[in-house]
Structure formats: C-alpha cells, structure tokens
Amino acid sequence: MTHPNDVPPSKLLPPLAAELKNRNAVAPPPWATFVKTGVHKQRGPTAPDWWYLRSASVLRKIFVLGTVGTERLAAEYGGKRDRGSAPYHARSGSRAVLREIVQQLEKSGLVRAYKNQG
What we know:
Blueprint: H1 9-23, H2 50-65, H3 70-76, E1 79-81, E2 89-91, H4 95-107
Antiparallel strand pairs: 1-2
C-alpha cells in the first residue's frame, strides 16, 4: 500500500486540494484574501485557490506527523524573517490560518481533536 511519504507532495497535493474543493470540505473565510501566511512573508498568497492547497498540505502533515497542534504546524509552515542587514531569525507561520483550516477539516470529519494531545 502506498503511504503519503512515498508520494512526492507536488504530485499528491493538487489532486487532494481539488477533491477538498469538490467535496466542499473546506472553504476560505472572507478574510483569506487579505491575510499573509506568516510574519516572515512580505505579501499574501497570490494563487486564487491557495486555501485549498494549504488545507491539503495540512491534512497530509497531520497524517504524516500524527497528533499535532497548531503550534507545531505553525513551526512547520514558518520561515526566516528578512531583517535587512541583521541576521535572519526563524519565525512561525500564521496560527490563525492553520487553526481555521484544522477546524474546517474537523467539522468535515477528516481529522479528529484529542484533548491534551496536541
């Protein structure tokens, strides 16, 4: 049986995102057009269906990593902040985006919440 670790994310995520969109499992909130995906980013996403692709990516990360919380997911989607001539510092991704996606995935029955386990 094929495991998500065996398939490159570039081949797995677009079909998974299309399936999430077709099933109406997730939907971008009204504020999603104005948001950045982290403080290390200078601009927000430009792709029109970035919410579905990020949702597919979060679903894959939860499957691969096991029980994780939004703090761990934010660290996974973080990056380095450009501070001009000062050295780079690691920054987390947007927890609001990840929290909303996880809540939508939970509501659609694709993930389950565990108390005190992430």
